[in-house]
Amino acid sequence: MAVSYQLEPRLLTQEDQPWLDRFAVGEEWWSHEITDFLRNQALEDAQQGLSSTTLFSFPGLKDVIGFITAASASLPSPQLAGVVTLPATFTAARVPAVVIPYLGIARPYRRVGHFGQEIHFRLLEALDAAPWAAVRLLYVECWAANDGGNAFWQKMGYVRFSQIVRDHPETGEPEYLNRLVYDRFAIQP
Amino acid sequence: MDTMTARKRSRLPDLDFDEKDIAGLQEVLNRPHHPSAASDNLGRQRRALQEARQREAEAEEK
Does A188 reside within a domain? Predict the structure, then answer.
């Protein structure tokens, strides 16, 4: 059965700048980081081919309800050689992955409508629809202090596998950052 | 003197994994898996979204 989508996607372009200036995720410091990325960096990164940002709006409208930025990458896994057959020349195996640097929902829509869930599902659906290249993992980082963000990713099926320390984006103080992955190939019990 | 300051770039995942990170990731990778499970997992995510929307619609009707 098909899902009834409430949002319409479009790739971020220069013409979207007026709508980006009106977009804000919230008042928390981690929300500032997400808002700042979309307003000031996402387009430049897209133009350089570093990542791709998809905006989501209600059908026929331009106001940004949410966005997701994704890039292809690979994650290191030295023991992968024991799991799959690799050419002998491989010294360090890597697992193909999609990295999600940012996913943001506009503040008025954060607790209603399940828009984050829809946006994430649209990415999974796109990966499933065009399996030209293998992508096993999706990787995200989420500040440990962001309880809502961590709960969201874990609800989406992500598993926290590590916690690192990075500079707080505003104070520069050490801050815990969670590393999480979603395994598309996981066999659920 | 140039008084302009460059905007600090937003943090991006650096994917610089140490041994502890890799060991944690390996634990996830070692769980039962198969490429054919991807479509099952997508179906599970689809149902979860449908059910969440359904629950919200029902709550609004009450």
Answer: no
Domain that holds residue A137: 8-183
Cα separation, A153 vs A151, in Å, equals 6
pLDDT score at A131? 76
Query: Hey, is the C-beta of B43 within 8 angstroms of any chain A C-beta?
Result: no
B54: exposed, middle or buried (C-beta count within 10 Å: 0-12, 13-18, 19+)? exposed
Q: What is the pTM of this model?
A: 0.90
pLDDT of B46 reads 96
Query: What was the pLDDT predicted at B5?
Result: 59
Closest chain B residue to the Cα of A100, Cα to Cα: B13
Comparing CB atoms, the residue among A33, A112, A124 nearest residue B11 is A33
**Cβ <8 Å between B49 and A161:** no
Among B28, B32, B42, whose Cβ lies nearest the Cβ of A159?
A: B28
Is A114 within the bounds of a domain? Answer: yes
Sites in chain A below the pLDDT cut of 50? 81
